[in-house]
Amino acid sequence: MSETSTPLQTPSVQTPVNNKKKKKKSRKKLLWILGLLLIAIIVIAVIISSKKETLITVQTEKIKPRNITQIVTATGKIQSETEVNISAEISGEIVSLPFKEGDEVTKNDLLVKIKQDALRRNFRSRMPPYR
């Protein structure tokens, strides 16, 4: 019988120096991966935010004097700046209206003509009797 000799294999024992190198390498890899991931997130965020901005089309023109007309349709109540209540001093039948709705009037214009019969009766009743 022949004896064969086999070399003894010694279990690999890691020294503290090897552990430190491996930890440094794994930390470097982790930092690189985190850095690349952070850059990718920033790029994606910029791309998404730039898509939200929409351009507004604006029409421009050289300045020149002209009338601008714009039609506005709305519901509501229109009120004038000043309100005038018109009332007669005497009552009677209206004979004529010299103005149409929307016409301009000035101070002392005749607005309404009242029938003379009612005016005379009213005038006589207000005057004291003379003797």
**How much beta, percentage-wise?**
under 5%
Regions with little confidence, pLDDT below 50 for 5+ residues: none
C-alpha-based Rg, rounded: 52 Å
Sheet with most strands: 2 strands, antiparallel
According to DSSP, the number of beta strands is: 2
Helical stretch tally: 2
What average pLDDT do the residues reach?
Answer: 79
Question: What does the model show?
Answer:
The protein is mainly alpha-helical and 131 residues long. Helix content is 37%, strand content 4%. It has 2 helices and 2 strands, in the order αββα. It has helices spanning 16-52, 116-126; strands at residues 94-96, 113-114. A two-stranded antiparallel ribbon has the order 1-2. The chain is rod-shaped, with a radius of gyration of 52 Å. The relative contact order is 0.06. The mean pLDDT is 79.
Topology overview:
Elements: H1 16-52, E1 94-96, E2 113-114, H2 116-126
Antiparallel strand pairs: 1-2
Question: Can you describe this structure in just a few lines?
Answer:
Helix content is 37%, strand content 4%. It is mainly alpha-helical.
